[in-house]
Amino acid sequence: GHGLMKGKRGLIMGLANDKSIAWGIAKALAAEGAELALTYQGDAFRKRVVPLADELGVTQMADCDVTDPASIDAVFNQLEEAWGGLDFYVHAIGFSDKSELRGRYVDTSPENFRMSMDISVYSFTACCQRAEKLMKNGGSCLTLTYLGAERVMPHYNVMGVAKAALEASVRYLAEDLGKDGVRVNAISAGPIKTLAASGIGDFRYILKWNEYNSPLRRTVTIDEVGQSALYLLSDMGRAVTGEVHHVDSGYHAVGMKAVDAPDM
Ligand code: NAD
């Protein structure tokens, strides 16, 4: 590393296992000297997250379910006590009942619509609200989104609608927090095989399609998303806010199947 994150402290939410995008981001930040806090969602994830946290010398850990405001408050209170401030915040959380990540969007239930919006959209705003208060010297907040926010993708359904709202909230948050030197951005990642992605119908087909049709003719890795996150979270990205940055081998730029793509 080059010490790009030396002296910076930050919180990462959404680490489930070593396939998580949050893990790619955590490794990239730790390699540049960042001090990290991690949250995990309940005891089931704790066992897998502890050894990963140890690997990076993580100093602050907490159980947090973002549907519970008290549990969000507890995390930020813990960090205020331990660190007195915060330099960056990463939100790598999304959820929808997987029975609605197939079939038609129009059939979405009100219960799952509200839950998906609460966990995948509102939680980012709720955490930025609390992070802002700790970012006394400015800071950088980052969330993860997908092209399904901008265009219709098979099976993405309610998550596409949620990601559209998440991207809009990035712009509103960037305006609100910009005066205090706090930046807010999103990375729109190409498809990666993770626990969350495995809930999406025909995910292997989506991976192959991206491999054959993206300008770089390959999918992306969690480490590559981590490198881009490093740019947005470090001072290298200090003039960038309200941005949705695509890290997807260029797939977002393409309008049609590649002429050399095999039949699928
Ligand atoms: P992942 O399963 O590793 O991470 C999802 C995380 O969300 C898990 O750690 C889970 O514990 C957490 N989570 C879900 N509900 C929660 C709750 N109520 N409270 C707290 N945490 C909760 O999968 P991932 O693919 O690394 O997902 C991270 C982010 O990246 C998500 O926002 C996802 O939509 C986004 N994304 C993923 C892809 C992809 O193809 N994998 C592409 C673009 C964007």
TrEMBL record:
EC number: 1.3.1.9
Residues involved in NAD(+) binding: 14, 20-21, 41, 65-66, 93, 163, 192-196
Example of a GO MF term: enoyl-[acyl-carrier-protein] reductase (NADH) activity
Pfam families linked to this entry: adh_short_C2
InterPro entries named in the record: Enoyl-ACP_Rdtase_NADH, NAD(P)-bd_dom_sf, SDR_fam
One of the GO biological process terms: fatty acid biosynthetic process
UniProt enzyme class: oxidoreductase
Biochemical pathway: Lipid metabolism; fatty acid biosynthesis
Catalytic activity: a 2,3-saturated acyl-[ACP] + NAD(+) = a (2E)-enoyl-[ACP] + NADH + H(+)
Active site: 146 (proton acceptor), 156 (proton acceptor)
UniProt keyword list: Fatty acid biosynthesis, Fatty acid metabolism, Lipid biosynthesis, Lipid metabolism, NAD, Oxidoreductase
SUPFAM superfamilies cross-referenced by the UniProt entry: NAD(P)-binding Rossmann-fold domains
Source organism, top-level taxon: Bacteria
Family the UniProt entry places it in: Belongs to the short-chain dehydrogenases/reductases (SDR) family. FabI subfamily.
Name of the molecule in the record: Enoyl-[acyl-carrier-protein] reductase [NADH]
